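Retry 2 of 3 after timeout on previous attempt. Resubmitting structure tokens to design endpoint.
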């Protein structure tokens, strides 16, 4: 289907407690019992473990969000929140030919990392980023998951722009939306959560191909042997 990640009888490896019906489903298991219709990919030999580690799920999530945003080439892209997913969206948007990749994040280290991973501009506030362009962003990725950034995402998009909401994975209340503003400015608002299996395939292909030159190692803080998993 179009949304297998929302299957009514889905199984998420490593997310659910092991039971007798589906044993050996943990993400740190030496062996897995695959449930029917599971999609899996072989990691390309040229990818190190550290680079491949983020493919599931940060890189795959970023690939799915880029896909849902439509054409990126020649467009102004605004990314709110430069965590691992945000930094990866920077690299993918830049590789896709975006005119500008703007990153908004209050953390200086995150902004610096996003520049290394493809952002062309980084700042604390959206108006500061958009002012030189004289218009809003063509595509806005809200990845910070805060009420303030969701509101800003809607006002930062240009007429006819697209807003991708993917940061609010936990409930935090409601955000007031002026429907007239959405209608008159002809905005497209889409939610993104998890990803289609093709997103994982796209992530691995990107890391081994177009994205090979980006410093993915900077996204890995530390490595631990399996015996220290606890």
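Retry 2 succeeded. Sequence:
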């Amino acid at each position: 289907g179009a949304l297998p990640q929302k299957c009514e009888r889905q199984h998420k490896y490593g997310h659910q407690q092991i039971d007798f019906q589906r044993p050996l489903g943990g993400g740190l298991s030496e062996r897995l019992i695959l449930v029917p219709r599971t999609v899996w990919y072989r990691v390309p030999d040229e990818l190190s473990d550290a680079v491949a580690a983020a493919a599931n799920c940060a890189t795959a999530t970023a690939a799915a969000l880029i896909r849902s945003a439509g054409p990126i080439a020649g467009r102004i892209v605004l990314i709110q929140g430069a965590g691992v997913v945000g930094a990866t969206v920077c690299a993918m948007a830049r590789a896709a030919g975006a005119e500008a990749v703007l990153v908004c994040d209050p953390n200086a280290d995150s902004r610096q990392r996003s520049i290394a991973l493809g952002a062309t501009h980084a700042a604390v506030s959206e108006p500061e980023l958009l002012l030189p362009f004289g218009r809003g962003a063509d595509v806005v990725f809200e990845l910070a998951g805060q009420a303030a950034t969701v509101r800003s995402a809607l006002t930062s998009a240009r007429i006819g722009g697209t807003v991708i909401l993917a940061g609010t994975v936990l409930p935090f209340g409601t955000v007031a939306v002026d429907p007239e503003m959405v209608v008159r400015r002809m905005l497209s608002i889409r939610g993104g959560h998890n990803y289609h299996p093709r997103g994982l395939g796209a992530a691995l292909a990107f890391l081994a191909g177009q994205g090979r030159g980006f410093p993915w190692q900077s996204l890995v803080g530390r490595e631990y042997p399996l015996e220290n998993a606890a």
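Attempt log closed. The chain has a mean pLDDT of 92.
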